[in-house]
Write a structure and sequence with these properties.
This protein is α/β, with parallel strands linked by helices. The protein is 23% helix and 22% strand. The chain contains six helices and eleven strands. The N and C termini lie far apart (47 Å).
Amino acid sequence: MAPVLLKGDKVEDPINGKTYSRFLPYGYGGTVKRKNALSPQTLSLERHRLLWLFLKNKTDFFSAKRKMLHVAPEQCFYKIFKNMDNLDYTTGDLNSPLADVKMDLHEIPFDDNSFDVIFCNHVLEHVRDDIQCMKEIYRVMRPGGFAILQSPVDITREKTFQDDSIVSEDEREKHYWQKDHVRLFGLDYKDRLESVGFQVRVENYIQEFSEDEINRYCISSPKKDDSIYYCLKN
């Protein structure tokens, strides 16, 4: 649907400041599509808009000089980050056409302590060994740096669920929420990140917004954890 058909001022995408009568519905596979989820120009979803506001209001990401690795770069962020003068910006992925470096997250092809900032969002639920990938991210991050490591988290589950006998797409979608996921993280996701050395701050930033602001920016995903996993290395 063309943005002109969504002309209005009811919802706002904070990434580009554009307003609309509503966002587009969005849902993966056979799931029920979420209303007001996809922004038509940036293609941001709820989690992207919340993260943008967090970075803007709670960090110096947009001003401090940083060397950054962006794993599996999100389309809504890629061009903006690439053109930011304060970032020495590198993208990496096994398959993405947006990647500067083709890489396997299990063996990141960079030296220890290479990056000040690492983003790796909605990747660790796909990989063969999430702990090994967390170790690699920690290894290439400089002391004093931070990483944003978002993944779907089932807040009703204490422990991460993974069963290697579940191989069909239908069963994976049933148990892991998506056909190409190989695990579903539980509330122990923070513990898993901390087990490799990270200091993890689980930022419940969405709680700082009023209901009107949440609805205007459409920054809450129904039935999903809205926390931001802000990971530090001393």
